[in-house]
Amino acid sequence: MNDVLARPCCPCSPGGLAYRKDFTAEEMREAALAIRENAHQSLNDLRTVLGTLRRDGAVVMRA
User: Fold this and answer.
1) Number of structural domains in the chain
2) Residue 29: inside a domain, yes or no?
3) Is residue 63 part of a domain?
4) Coil/strand/helix, residue 56
5) Burial category of 23 from C-beta neighbours within 10 Å (exposed 0-12, middle 13-18, buried 19 and up)
6) Which side of the chain, N or C, has fewer Cβ within a 10 Å radius?
7) Does pLDDT of 60 surpass 90?
8) Side-chain-facing half-sphere of 36: CA atoms under 13 Å
9) What is d(CA 59, CA 45) in angstroms, rounded to the nearest whole number?
């Protein structure tokens, strides 16, 4: 399950943009907006999965 939930979050890190010297300001803006949109979608997907698990009576393990 970890792979299913974590994989969509991987491209959500904006740190890589700092190393892109070939992007124009507009390309940088578009990339940052795409990362933000993907991050929001990943969080919504995670909330849906967790909500389903809790609704179905699954035990939620805490670290």
Assistant:
1) 1
2) yes
3) no
4) coil
5) middle
6) C
7) no
8) 6
9) 19
